[in-house]
Amino acid sequence: MNDSLRQATRLEAIGGRYDPWLLGAALALACLGVVMVASSAIMMGSTPFHYLSRHVVFLTVGIGLAVWAMRTELKLVEQYNRLLLLACFILLLMVFVPGLGVSVKGAHRWINLGVSNFQVVEVVKVLFIVWLASYLVRFRDEVNATWPAMLKPLGVAAGLVVLLLLQPDFGSASLLLAITAGMLVLGGVNMPRMFGPVLVGLPLLAVVAIAEPYRVRRLTSFSDPWADPFGSGYQLTNALMAIGRGEWFGVGLGGSVQKLNYLPEAHTDFILAVIGEELGFAGICLVIGLYALLVGRALWVGLRCVEMRRHFAGYCAFGIALWIGLQSFVSIGVNLGLLPTKGLTLPLVSSGGSSVLMTCAAMGLLLRVSYELERTQRQVALRGDLMQAAAAPETAPAEAAAPAPAPAVRGTSRLRPRIEPTFERIA
């Protein structure tokens, strides 16, 4: 009994390690964001460093949220999954409360926190990913085998999308649906069943997209922005001029001309165009490479978690990877003229308090996933060693009859039979 307690204590005392590739990519993007916000917004605001100081404050608070998430056990987060889903709907309804919700250019997407406005959909992204990860764990077999289990998360996502369209926020609504579909696929949903909702949903999204005249203008202008360079194509033409002017290595940090009140939202939605002008093609490749590293590593961590039967951690990693990957893809595509203009920030790089805060929190959650994965791997290895040590006395009499082994030679290692651990024991 005492040996079992000592073994359990040894297993519990084992810690993990935060994935250095994830941490390095996130820090590199955040540092690049600070530099480029300082450069792109220097001519905006009441002072040259107005937006930079705001960005640094939000980034500091976001790092605090990331540290808190990194130190929180995932099993504690999973316990509150239903409350997190309820919070998603409450937050999206709060923007319509008079006195609390804030309307900007006819859109009700923010709530007033006194010191700053906050875009609630950024919180909803994180909370919904956590709830969906928990749902896929609880109904993993049913999602693959039955229609109701597969349609329930799609129905919940549709309810959130309706609230987002009422704000209106078509970009976030489309992103949320894409994250839901991606997590269901990675969670093992039956693919033939998935085609039905997709075939129904895509035409509905198309109808919603063309229902508003300004969305139709965005869809048509990006195909030929030079047809109306001072109207519907104004943002994209200036972004393309900035990127073209940067050529291979840019005009130098701080040397952008388009940011001087020519390129709208140069520090938020179109910050990549400023990067292209000042750092050139090399700078854009650096940004794309960092996002590829971050998303690819997050997917790898999620896959390893699923293999180790840490399904909730794995699905959280999948969801965050899909979120960062899809949002960065859309933002980069908009800046390069590959996609219609849409107000989605470049994660960890663009200025924007709500986005910076919640992206940092998501990075903290992702790093926590990597920490618990490393801890599990170490526990499995130690459990195998303990099982081997416990089995050693049983073979002692047989070994006693055998001749004594030759003394070990320096520089060589003693070989011993390996007992493969069973993951079911730690699931």
Automatic annotation (TrEMBL):
Keyword terms, alphabetized: Cell cycle, Cell division, Cell inner membrane, Cell membrane, Cell shape, Cell wall biogenesis/degradation, Glycosyltransferase, Membrane, Peptidoglycan synthesis, Transferase, Transmembrane, Transmembrane helix
Pfam families the record matches: FTSW_RODA_SPOVE
Domain of life: Bacteria
Pathway connected to this protein: Cell wall biogenesis; peptidoglycan biosynthesis
Enzyme class name: transferase
GO cellular component: a single term: plasma membrane
Membrane topology reported for the UniProt record: Multi-pass membrane protein
GO annotation terms (biological process): cell wall organization; FtsZ-dependent cytokinesis; peptidoglycan biosynthetic process; regulation of cell shape
GO MF: lipid-linked peptidoglycan transporter activity; peptidoglycan glycosyltransferase activity
Location of the region described as Disordered in the Swiss-Prot/TrEMBL record: 394-414
EC number(s) per entry: 2.4.99.28
Primary location recorded for the protein, binned into one broad class: membrane
Catalytic activity annotation: [GlcNAc-(1->4)-Mur2Ac(oyl-L-Ala-gamma-D-Glu-L-Lys-D-Ala-D-Ala)](n)-di-trans,octa-cis-undecaprenyl diphosphate + beta-D-GlcNAc-(1->4)-Mur2Ac(oyl-L-Ala-gamma-D-Glu-L-Lys-D-Ala-D-Ala)-di-trans,octa-cis-undecaprenyl diphosphate = [GlcNAc-(1->4)-Mur2Ac(oyl-L-Ala-gamma-D-Glu-L-Lys-D-Ala-D-Ala)](n+1)-di-trans,octa-cis-undecaprenyl diphosphate + di-trans,octa-cis-undecaprenyl diphosphate + H(+)
Localization (cell): Cell inner membrane; Cell membrane
InterPro entries in UniProt: FtsW, FtsW/RodA
Keyword ATP-binding appears in the UniProt entry: no
Record-stated family: Belongs to the SEDS family. FtsW subfamily.
NCBIfam families: ftsW
Xref: PANTHER family: CELL CYCLE PROTEIN, PEPTIDOGLYCAN GLYCOSYLTRANSFERASE FTSW-RELATED
Protein name as annotated: Probable peptidoglycan glycosyltransferase FtsW
Organism per entry: Pseudoxanthomonas wuyuanensis
